[in-house]
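Fold this complex.
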Amino acid sequence: MKIRQLSLFLENRPGQLRVPCKVLGDAGIDILTMSLADTQQFGILRLIVKDWQRAKQVLEAAGQVVNVTDLLALDVPDHAGGLASVLEVFERTGLGVEYMYAFGLRQRGKSATLLFRLEDPEGAQVKLASAGVALVSAEELFRRAAA
Amino acid sequence: MTDFVVENRLFDPAEALPRGELAALQAARLVETVARAQAVPFYREAFARAGVDPASVRGLDDLARLPFTVKDDMRAAYPLGLLAVPRARIARVHGSSGTTGLPTFVAYTRRDLDTWAGLVARFLTAGGLRPEHLVHVAFGYGLFTGGFGLHAGIERVGAGVVPSGGGNTPRQVLLLRDLAADALICTPSYALHLAEVVREAGLGPSDLRLRLGHFGGEPWTEELRQALERELGILAFNNYGLSEVIGPGVSGECAARRGMHVAEDHFLVECLHPETLRPVPDGEVGELCFTSLTKEAMPVIRYRTRDLAALDRSPCPCGRTGARMGRVVGRSDDMLIIRGVNVFPSQVEEALLRVEGTAPHYLIEVSRPGALDEATVKVEVRPADFSDEMRRLVALRDRIDREIQAVTGVRMTVELVAPGSIERSAGKATRVVDRRPPGAR
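Structure:
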């Protein structure tokens, strides 16, 4: 049920973000979503792409440092307080959030899909399942994105 | 500029010994030094390897046959292997930073300390210090020879001392203003930093009583001298020394300020081509090499300083007969002097290797944006060290930061850079980019 995320090291200077985007573009790889974390000196670009193995390959061939991590995709009720109710489950079951993606993949009035980087993705899967929180598989995520 | 004029005065008549008498004294003292050095296994072995019978050394013409001593020999003798007297005769130990993180120790007997204070008093007197002056010492007091060395020399002159020590610049400015010291002692770059803090505090030369500055411990330029004289309202003098030889006091400027007179009655100086190790003609830059003539605890024979400078043996209007050495214009090895501290690129490499998993692809960039040197170390991130979590990368950088400071004693800015972004060269890797003005390195 895990979603593979690619992380790239970026130096904080002009052109650094363009390079990986161009590499992926040239390889015909579509970026589903991304997030940037930065310090004054350097940044981390995090990407979700469908064909992560090939993306990793082309990025590494282009001299990028790529790290693969597992995220979990969750359906959060699409109403006010929806995210808070999910975070309450995290808190109750002792799950720590490293960071998350908020992007617009939503089934209107039903749910919004959010991506979470949790401290222990393996354990989290079990805990969330037993708490009745629905996880979204990678196939389902990309199917919805393509719809 | 100050309107203060330094009148020529000798501290010790030996400074003006006629060259003929000086040569005779040097020859006699060289023979004594060679004999004294035989108490040290290192020198016995070095002489044997060079095929020199110590008893055959009769005068200055024999100097060229004697074996060289280098910094590595000092390191190999850690901690006190080059001691030529019984331990009980050690009066003090000083040290300098070393590439292994261990300092190189130097020892002094009571008489060595006495000699040293006299040598410091010579250059202070030559540069205008008088018994009625009060002197602010902003050198660190500790293993570093600067603080205690200058302190003793000032007292030998008979002047008063404010032993301020290093650091806390605003407090130093307060002391300079309120105690109204006449002379300032520190590194030239720290003096410039002080001048800036003085200015930022809304003060100027007229708020201070400073008239003299005696600066050393690192190379500096004529431009910096002018800036310091203007900013602080002083006359600035250059002095030179290194702990392996004795510390500050090996040479210093007189009022003519046309080079630093070497105390040749205590040290033989040679200026050698760094590769052939043959003497270069006067006026040409070469590597300075010193042989101590009076030191007891740790005599040094033909110590290669790696400092590049020229010698001038023409007569000086001040009457001192000691050869004058020009400003140190560079190093014959890869040593950097950063804010007065000796740093070797290999130390940075060692620090990186201590941080598990860090690839030794790095570049040290040194610049002087303001008064003080700034050093940046660029380190390539290896895939194995890379994480999607920012805090891990920040922790990695901080760990490198701490190790570099622990090994070199200097704070450097650590920058993580992308793999492959540091240029590889076919031959010897470029490890250092020094953007400081030449002559200020």
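Chain B has a mean pLDDT of 91.
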